[in-house]
Amino acid sequence: MEILMSILIGLLFASAVYLMLSKSLLRIIIGTGLLSHGAHLLLLTMAGLKRGTVPLLGEEATNYTDPIPQALILTAIVISFGVTAFFLVLAYRAYQELGTDNIDEMRGSKNND
Amino acid sequence: MSLLHIAILAPLLLAIFIPFVYKRFRSIHTGWFVLWLPAILFIYFLQYLPDIKNQGFVEKTFNWIPSLGINFTAYVDGLGLLFALLITGIGTLVVFYSIYYLAKDKENLGSFYVYLLMFMAAMLGVVLSDNLIVLYAFWELTSFSSFLLIGFWYTKERSRHGAQKSMLITVFGGLSMLGGFIILSLLTGTFSIREIISQAGEISTEPFFILALVLVLLGAFTKSAQFPFHIWLPDAMEAPTPVSAYLHSATMVKAGIYIVARMSPVFAEQGLWIWLVGGVGLLTLFWGSFNAVKQTDLKAILAFSTISQLGMIMSMLGLGAAALHYDHLSENIYMGATVAAVFHLINHATFKGSLFMVAGIVDHETGTRDIRKLGGLMQFMPITATIAFIGTFSMAGLPPFNGFLSKEMFFTSVIHVLSLDIFNLETWGALFPILAWIASVFTFVYSMMLFFKTFRGQYQSEKLKKKPHEAPVGMWIPPAILGSLVILIGFFPNLLSNTILKPAAEVIQSPLINEGHSFDIHISFWHGFKPELFMTIGVIVVGVLLYKTMPKWTAIYNKFPSSLSLNHLYDQGLVHTEKGSNKVTDFYMNGSIRNYMVYIFIAFIGLLTITIIKKDAFFMDKSDLAPIGIYEIVLTLIIVAAAITILMAKSRLTSIIALGAIGYTVALFFVLFRAPDLVLTQLVIETVSVALFLLAFYHLPKINRKEERMRFKLTNAIVAAGVGIVVTIIALSAHSNKLFKSISEYYIENTADKAGGGNMVNVILVDFRGFDTMFEIAVLGIAALGVYGMIKLRLSRRQDR
């Protein structure tokens, strides 16, 4: 399972990078979204998968899955959401002010680098 | 802090008060408030003469940074004292001269004397420091104050150019020298010059010793205007004449000579030292005198002659180093070169200082320094002409002036090169006397030019702006004093020999002296019919012939292509460095974010791949894997399909929806991997994110709404695939290389007992690791405020209205 997940994560990273290299601002942000999905799955995979039951004490089990990466991912999800939201509004404002979503057209002019 | 330290720093202290004095007493020339200090310092340093003669040196230490071994150790010995006397003595005369030279109401005298005093303190610090770092600090202060003085008339473009050029070249050398000093201190463990000298024999076989030698010499050569770094000195002639007289003839340009002399006991055993110092000095001597003849500006002639004479001193110091290879002190003929170097150092300071002042007087009284316009001035200014006569004839090396004596000693030492049998000198050594003789002929020619073309010949009144007349008394007194010194030393050279020359030469040759031996100097005016006498006669005969036939052969100077001149190379070098760096920067900083991302990702791929290969880190362990079920395969396929959809989609809406699909599938993965809290959060957040994406999509600018498929780009695809593969490989290797167990046991056991909760993830978030959560809340808060601010604040539009 871990091998399959590693390959899947690699695929997510590759598509994220490909999107981030494109010209459209919206696609770049989609790329960052894919990248954070990849990172979250990577965190979970590295801790080992399906090593026990849900980390709730009421389950009366002998083995629990590792709770630490889950806590880390939860934090990461919230932070990446905050950043993505900020980014999106930034992109939205850029559309409004500059009238373009092509980053090549957003370069400073010769006199205004 | 002893009196000696105060004496060294006194000019700096006085410099603080000069601007106030300048502002307060406008009716009195500020120079009068400066004049007393170098005079007192000169008398103060004279008092050291008996001490130095009897006990060799005086040392006073003032702690500066003891923990790093950097202390301001003032150390007066024969060599340092000689320079200190030159600096203060000629400093006094130059200040006196500048009082009459610079107009009270036209020039910014406050700045001038502040810079000059800064320079004086820096120079005293250079020659009286035993600590290399302190020496370097003062060394850079000389470069810096010289820069300020050359650019004194900063409204003139040529002044700024000259100042910049001298700054770039001397600071280049200064930094190399710092490198050499640091290597020396690493080899010996000390910054003290005397302690380094005491270890000179042990470190000479170290691998970096030669590098230190070359670096220190670079510093000395740039400062002392040796070939090919001499090009800054003629351009520095844009400075006021008192500055040229002081810095660029008598003191600062001799700082490099000082370093070579001071470091001789450390390096002189090396053959490379003899070759470099002697050879470069000789080349400079020849090149400087050869180029001086074609100049038409008085100060330019003097600048090239300074270059040439410095080369002569330098080459004598190099030849003097040969003395270390012979044990018999009493018969050691190579000692003579060192003595000659020190002797000529003093002589050069006297006659060159007076000649610069004479050039200043001529400029001041006629309005030009161009020898093509000058001539016949002797009848108007007899005193100045007399001083010039003494100076030029001494420079040419004619009896009875002091230049004659040192030139004879110079010839003696170059003739001795012929009997040297070390370091291949027997093959190429013959070059030394030949080049030295040719250079002396040219020296004779430009010296005669300097005197006869200015003061004799036809008076051309129509070319001069002013009617020339004799200079005011104050202006000719300082050069007259120097001129009388020229004669005094010329007739009684032994006045100096035991008091100053011997202690100074003993310092330079200290490895030979340290066993209680000493040597005697006797400079004889007449030493019989020796080869050097015939060489001098030859110089005079050929020199007179060349001078008489000058118009016929000066055409050879035009034969040299100007594109090969060193100034041209320097200028082009600067232009091309600037253009080149512009091109390089424009090449990689093209303003496109995509390019920068490509650099970053390529660096990521490259560095990680190299590391993995070098460390042989890829390793796959299949023993500890979770089983794969049908659900996982289905979910994986969904994600793969959605990712491909995003990449191939024509419309952005499809991409957004596919991104949502991936988000929800990841939530399903969290279900499979037993993470209920993650599932909840992921579902909610994915929903909100997709809504936000749709909002952004909805507001796309109308003009560019044309939906188009992402165009395939091979480089992007390769970079993306590379990143994906590297991440996969690292994930696989990391999973296979678990070195120790997880710490999660502790959390699982203590969630109920110590924290009183049942949900381990939540207890970790708010109890065990609550800090993370606090700042995560802060992140959300900041993001919210940022979003609000971005939408609400519209400063640019308000300005437009």
A few lines on this structure:
Chain A is mainly α and 113 residues long. Helices cover 65% and strands 0% of the residues of chain A. Chain A has helices spanning 2-20, 25-46, 67-98.
Features:
heterodimer; A: 113 residues; mainly alpha; 3 helices; 65% helix; B: 801 residues; two-stranded antiparallel sheet; 36 helices
Q: Radius of gyration of chain A in whole Å, from Cα?
A: 19 Å
General shape of chain B: elongated
Q: Mind describing the biggest β-sheet of chain B?
A: 2 strands, antiparallel
Strands of the largest sheet of chain B, in order across it?
Answer: 1-2
Query: Measured on Cα atoms, how large is the radius of gyration of chain B?
Result: 38 Å
Number of helices of chain A: 3
> Which stretches of chain B of 5+ consecutive residues score pLDDT under 50?
none
- Most extensive interface: A-B, 87 and 98 residues
Helix coverage percent of residues of chain B? over 70%
Mean pLDDT of chain A: 84
Structural class computed from helices and strand pairing of chain A = mainly alpha
Mean pLDDT of chain B equals: 85
SSE order of chain A, one letter for each helix or strand:
HHH
In words, what does this structure look like?
The complex is a heterodimer of chains A (113) and B (801). Chain A is mainly alpha-helical. Chain A has helices at 2-20, 25-46, 67-98. Chain A is elongated and about 60 Å long. The mean pLDDT of chain A is 84. In chain B, a hairpin with a 4-residue loop joins strand 1 and strand 2 (70-77). Chain B is 72% helix and 2% strand. With 801 residues, chain B is mainly alpha-helical. Chain B has 36 helices and two strands. In chain B, helix 4 packs antiparallel against helix 21, helix 17 (382-396) packs antiparallel against helix 20 (431-455) and helix 17 (382-396) runs parallel beside helix 21 (473-491). The chains are: A mainly alpha (113), B mainly alpha (801). At the A-B interface, helix 1, helix 2 and helix 3 of A face helix 28, helix 29, helix 30, helix 31 and helix 32 of B.
